[in-house]
Amino acid sequence: MSRRIATLALLALALLGRPARAEEPAAGGPPAAGPSAREQWERLSPEEKERLRERWRTFQSLPPERQEAIRDALRRYRSLPPERREEIRRNWEAFRQLPERDKELIRERYRRFRQLPPEQRAQIRRAIRQMFRASPEQRERFLENLRRWREMSPEQREQFRQEWRRRRGG
User: Fold this and answer.
1) Rounded-to-integer distance, Cα 128 and Cα 130, Å
2) What is the DSSP string of 19-32?
3) Quick one: residue 17, left, alpha or beta (phi over 0 = left, psi -120 to 50 = alpha)?
4) Which of 78, 133, 143, 148 could form an SS bridge with 29, CB 3.0 to 4.6 Å?
């Protein structure tokens, strides 16, 4: 159950706007409070400095539109309240500790999510927010329903949709 919740939390993070990773180079936006970039750089070990240089070279090798997307994500991240940034950081750390198989599953689901029409993505975001606000019993019921849905064949799902629409009167 805790792995499911962690996966859903990471999915929610992905659905609510993909933040820039802490490892990505700073680009634009207001400086963060605390030590200056120069002071932070001086505190790094030679290995950490080299890793950052390599990441910077990788960033610079990206197409301009990808670089701009990363800069935009970083600006969005920096504009978030500190508690939201901390939540994102914790989620990112939890994601990094998952087995590679689980990470790839999350990435694949995120890719599929991004291909959905905007109204469907918004509907999914609302459902996930509701789930996180729900009681543990409601959340468990939701996850059980999701498990049943995944076990249905496409025909069974369509039958269910039709029956649900009929009951709703539309």
Assistant:
1) 5
2) PPPTTSPP-SSPPP
3) left
4) 78
**Residue range 51-98, pLDDT digits in tens:** 999 999 999 999 999 999 999 999 999 999 999 999 999 999 999 999
Q: Which amino acid is at 82?
A: P
Quickly list H helices, 23-117.
37-43, 46-61, 64-79, 82-96, 100-114
Residues of the chain with pLDDT under 70: 1-33, 170
User: Which residues lie below 8 Å from residue 30, measured CB to CB, with a gap of 6+?
Assistant: 78
The pLDDT value recorded for residue 170 is 62
- Which amino acid is present at 62? L
Give the three-class secondary structure for 118.
helix
Other beta carbons less than 10 A from residue 76's beta carbon: 14
Number of neighbours of residue 28 by Cβ within 10 angstroms: 10
Write down the pLDDT at residue 29.
45
